[in-house]
Each structure stands twice: as C-alpha cells, then as structure tokens.
Design a protein that fits this description.
The protein is of the alpha/beta class. The radius of gyration is 18 Å and the shape is globular. It contains 13 helices and four strands. The chain has a four-stranded parallel beta sheet, with helices on both faces. Helix content is 49%, strand content 8%. Helix 6 crosses helix 7.
Length: 248
C-alpha cells in the first residue's frame, strides 16, 4: 500500500535482512522445485490444501517466502486478489477467524468498529492510523503483510525475477487458474477434494462507495504490481473497482 510512514527502528530492517538470508539458504537446501508464495487473504488456505494434495510444493506457514528467495531451479506459484477486496477482507480477518479476540485485536475493533470507520480515519489522519497499525500487528493492514512489494519487490525486481514464476492464481478465478497448473503437470484432481467450502455471507459492513474511491488511489501500487504480474501471464487486470462478488 502507498504510504509515507515507515517504522523507525533499525532492528526491523536488520530482522528482515536476517530472515532473507535464512529463507534463501533454506530454499537452497530443499528438493522442492515448486514454491508457493502465500499472500494473505488471497485464497491461500484453499490453495495450500490443493497444492499439498497434488504437487510437491514447498509452503511456508508464516507467509515469509519472497520471490527473490527462490534459487535458479525453483518456480513460484503466486496467489493474488483484487487489492480493494484484499484490504476489506484483511480488516475483518480476525473477526472471521476467531471466536475470542485477544486484547490487541479487541482494542483495534473498538477503535475502528468497521472497515468504513477505519478508512475514514485513514483519510483524515493517515500517519496516526499507520503508526497505530505498525504498533498493533494483530490485524496487519498496514504492516509488511499489506504490501505486495514485501513478496515481489518493485516492478524492476519482478522483471529481473520473472523467470522464477510458474503461474499466477487469482482468487476470483481460483479453480480455473489451478486447472492451468494441473494441466501442465497432467494432474486430474479428485472431484471430492476439488470442492471448496463456501464461506457464509459476511455480516459486517462493506466498504462504502466513497471509501472505495479513496482506496483506488491509496492502493495504486498494489494495482500496479498485481496487474504487471497478471499481464505477464496474459490474464485480465484488476480495474480499481469493487463489486459485491467475492468481497470476503
């Protein structure tokens, strides 16, 4: 996401560099030729189960694998979602996932009862909201897990590492894009395992039109990276709009 605030601590930068070294070495020592880059709130849970069932894919439990971690023989399977949809889903993620919130999660939802209140405050006081979210990592809308550049880097870096990407899976067309990968390997999935569990309709307020219009600009970098990756595989780009379909 596009924002000016950055965590001031040198320890944060150092920690990320050390993790990069760790994961590069870890992947170098693995015999998996396929690696899943798990962007949160983009259908990853379903994808993990499918890829585990049918392909020898390395999947990290903590969303830490980045494109530049892969070695020269490995290929990445990438998942993407419309950035505004992912933003909305990320805000409500803990409410959907957990029955009992911890103190920090409860504090966040008391401060911002719904995604529209959060976005309104983001418009009015972006630096305050961003600083708060960096301090409260329980719902990481604006921390490292919010920006696609965390996993892929800049467009220039993506171009440099483009050969490492096997394919891109879109949450909105998840079965269709999975089929492309399975066809590549001659895999015919079990019909029982192929069925997704449908999530119940969200009971929480959806983004208002005015907040969507703001987020179109705010998430400009996310759309740029997403659409570059999609265009690399001749797939339709995201259009900076949000319909009621597949919102959460």
């Amino acid at each position: 996401m596009s924002y000016k605030f950055k965590p001031p601590l040198i320890t944060h930068v150092l920690r990320e560099k050390l993790k990069d070294l760790y994961y590069k070495r870890k992947l170098e020592n693995l015999n998996n030729d396929l690696v899943f880059i798990h962007v949160p709130k983009a259908g990853g849970t379903y994808l993990r189960s499918q890829l585990n069932n049918y392909l020898n894919v390395y999947i990290d439990d903590w969303h830490e694998i980045k494109l530049h971690h892969l070695n020269s023989r490995q290929k990445a399977i990438v998942c993407l979602r419309d950035p505004i949809k992912r933003f909305e889903s990320a805000f409500y993620s803990k409410l959907h996932m957990k029955q009992n919130l911890n103190n920090k999660e409860s504090e966040l939802y008391m401060r911002y009862p719904d995604v529209n209140e959060f976005t309104k405050e983001l418009i009015a006081n972006p630096s305050i909201v961003q600083k708060y979210c960096w301090g409260n990592r329980s719902v990481p809308m604006l921390s490292r897990y919010s920006r696609l550049s965390y996993w892929f880097g800049s467009i220039r870096q993506i171009k440099k590492n483009r050969s490492k990407i096997l394919n891109v899976i879109r949450t909105e067309y998840i079965d269709l894009d999975l089929k492309d990968i399975y066809d590549l390997y001659g895999i015919v999935p079990d019909n029982i395992k192929w069925k997704k569990n449908k999530k119940p309709e969200s009971k929480y307020p959806k983004l208002s039109e005015s907040n969507i219009n703001y987020l179109k600009s705010y998430l400009a970098e996310e759309y740029q990276i997403s659409n570059y990756l999609l265009s690399s595989f001749n797939k339709h780009s995201y259009s900076n709009t949000l319909t009621d379909e597949n919102r959460l």
